[in-house]
Description:
B: alpha/beta; Rossmann fold
Amino acid sequence: MRNTLRLALAYMKYYKKQTAALFTGVLLSAALLTGVGSLFASGQEAAKENARTEYGDWHYEMRCDFPWFGEFLKDIQESEGNDGIILGGEGFRLEKYGVETVRKAVSEPFEIQYVYGDEGYLDIMGRELLEGEMPVEENEIAADAQTLRNLGVPDEPGSAVTLDGEKFILTGIVSEMPEKLGDLMGDYMQVFVSPELDYGMNGSFLYLRFDESSPVLVQIKAFASAYGVDGSTVARNNGMAGYVGAEEAKLSVEQIRTALTDPSLGLPWIWGSLNENEALTEGAVLLVLAMFAGFIIYSIFQVSVLRRLSQYSVMQTLGMTDGSAFAMLMTEMALIFAGGYAAGTLLGNGAAAWIYGKAGRIFITRNQAGGNVARHTGVSMEETAAELSVSALPDAGVFHVDCRIIWMGAVFLFLVLALISLVLVRRMRRLTLREMIAKDAAGKRKKRKIYSLRHENMTGILAKKFMFSRKGAFIGILLSLSVGSVIFLGAAYVAENTKTNNELVFAADDGLGSDIQVYEASDILKDTIPEKTAEELKGITGLENVFPVRYMLGEIPLNDGMLKGTSYFAETAEEEGFEPDPEIMEKYNGQIVQTGEDDYRLKINIYGYDDEMLERLDDYVLEGRIDPDKMREENTVLFKTLLDGQGNYDVIDISAGDTVQLRTPDDPEADGETLKFLGGQDDYRDTELKIGALISRPLAKVGTYIGDDGVSNVDIIMTNEQMEKNFGVTGYQTISISLPEGADREAAARASDEIRSAVGGISRCVVKDYTAQIEAQDLYLDQQIMFFYGIAAVLLLISLLHIMNSMQYLVAERRYEFSVLRAMGITDAGFCKMLMKEGVRYGIYSSVVTLAAYWIVQEVLYYFMVHVYLYLHPQGMIEAGYLIFTAVLNVGLCTGAMVLSGRLQPAQAGMAEQA
Amino acid sequence: MEILQVKQIHKIYGEKENKVYALRDVSFSVEQGEFIAIVGTSGSGKSTLLNLIGGLDTPARGQIIIRGHDIASLKRKELTIFRRRNIGFVFQNYSLMPVLNVYDNVALPVTFDRGKHVDHGYIRELLKELGLWEKRKRYPSELSGGQQQRVALARALANKPALVLADEPTGNLDSSTTVEVMGLLKESSRKYHQTILMVTHNEALAQACDRIIRIEDGRLYCAAGKDGGWL
């Protein structure tokens, strides 16, 4: 062992350049892998903490007015507790619990629950007493400011509150309930009452928070089993579930098999099912990085070993066994790896901490709670836009070093090292055999052409012949040269499409496509912004664009199986947990109604845009074309269709050129029952409209009726003139206003003041300035793209190191031949030219291999972008500039590396060896 | 006509306490058409001398004049061109390009001179003379050691150099092939009036040369004529 170590150290010392190259390769690979891993982990951690704030710090909740609860409380009291664990049982470790007792629930004037919560409950839900005291007497309550505002009660302790005919005194103001708890529990308000108040109809609920270092699902099962809790009464905190292992194994083998054979499910469904909080995507990225790191280390080390193969063969001749050779290689690699990996981890995490501090938000996943979230109606645009905006993302929080990826990466790469050593030892053995075979096979078919008869310049021929003399090595080098380029191109392709997708998505989201929004926060059709006001707005100086939008609610028939995806809508899906929105059901009789076996009637949003907005929709056209003049002339419309979960626009069987029967209220200011589309024929008008183009997204939207998130609703879009002609709509529901490029916040504030004064007298008209959100959005997108390019640049740097190393090997391998050539009188320029020719050839061939390999990678990425990530209009092909850049860079790098490597070879080196 | 003059050559490797005197004050001259053997024990400095004459290495002191040119005064590029036009090399391990066939190996140094047309007639004559014409399309790995050394000799002669420097050209060959190669060297010297300097440690081979230059510990001990007289 000591000998092995001594020999390994001696080799490392002697071959300083190779050691340095390998060390740098390991260092950069480790830095990239662990740095990116920590960035992802930090993003996940921030998202988890945000979910904790938004949904409450609990994992499971259950009814607890059962005998087992007494036993549980007894255990808690008897438990000593340590390290934050208040109760440890077989298979579970409880950190927190809280009990909420609902004393009473009323539905007027709002859904309100009278609740007594113990300290644990208040802590879990983050409800702090901000002012006053918690209720003690029966006639005392505490509530949050928002609830008090809704009830019209001043948020001052001592105020009188009347609820359900009972009089209470407000004793304290508490902080608001977790923002998204309503998504899980249903929307209601809470008032806190004293434990003394009892109507005799209590319902008690126990909230549990387990130790998150192990999956909480296993723990709740153990808990339920320990106390005999009926599992069907246990509810999960879906907001937190994805972060703490609260979900059942997503897919069984059988489910995967079914999904793969069912075209409506397929890979996108499997990926989507497994990709909780983007964990699978991040895992895939890390796996690619780890494999790249492994490949680079292999490639650099094999070059290093090949250069001293003759010495190993001498040692083997002297009696060194394969086992000893393996031990020596492994020791050498392990020594370099230990230093390189540790330094790389420090470097990578240091850089990652800096990046996270500057742009941490780009690592936070946006999809928060899982499950089917019903659509909401009556949501103001302000809320919708805020929800969608980057400002809604939580703070990045603190940077977390991901220890898991550090040790997993180390284990993975160490195993790769062991494999490399094994492969190299086997190759040594095989090489010796091959050399023997080569001698026997002297008659192997070779080209017998005499080149000097036709070529006066033999250096080019020589370069070519050298390259192809060992085809296996040649192909290996080409492959290894192209790996870095392929990953770079893949990263650039994804970055470009992500940028385009983000821009299109955010341009389509109300408020983010325009700096200032003026809109009616109302779901009454007669509430509109008059045309005169819109004209006034257009007259305000300093505004770049003013886009007024008309609105009408309509209904279209989807007969004879036109609706392909019946599971798309809650009303027709018949899926447990995917219930129709009660408000939409109540106000509009649901989004869709079934009228026959394959016949449905679907509620849709109808928008009137002006010409410039219609032209901007060009980026979203799926089929057909947009021509506002033709639309007016022929009364054609645009149909915003639906996208299924696999990225196909085939939920509705409709194409450009088809006609659609549109039903709208006869009265443009209709309300109430008419909007349910259940009235008599006289209440409606039917219009047959030809579809000029299918589009993937609308621009300005109105979300206050049946809702419109830009994705899951059908919209019909026409010109504002058509809206008036077809339906008699003259007022506007929303006006999107944009400021000139580079306008500052002061200008925006001035403009919004003027706009506010213009719309001052209009009922329910709201002006919202999104300048700050757009600024944050732009910064976010820039940072995201910079990160992609940063990763691509590091990959390129590692590739550069690898190319230099490979080229040096190529030159060093032919060192003697080159020195003979020099002795024979080849000039420096001639020698350099020969190397350049070889470098250029390597560059060209590796570019060809890169393009071929990249084409396959691009197909896979395109599939994922379209069918899994549902990107808007991704480009099927990367911009030619990137391909040209990569090819030129490849040729340049190979040529440069070859010439540089040649310069490092002294002219007389080979001859000196001879002497 | 004197084709080579070596004047008071010194060559030192290493520095300070590691200093090794490879050659000390070596002087001699060579007439055109002479076939000279440089003999000495291993490490005596004979290959160093050959490398200095061939311009592959530079002396610490002294002058080497070939065809009236002091090679130390030539710039790097001039020296390279001068070398390929005036000096041919034959190495112990043949040093052929493994990826080129016999013909292309021989023609290779001629192609380094841009604008200079390869004299295919001369190469054919050389190959026929050396018994390689039938094997012109073979690759080095398909030839015996003797055949490879003949290719190396043909390559050295392809540019019609003033001087052929052969470093242990028979060192890797068996005795019968050694005799064959020596015969070819002598024949070339005679036929093309070629000056040849051959390094060898084989006294018997040296005796077949026109003159013997003997080196020991970096010093020129004597330069004996083929009749054995000291020059």
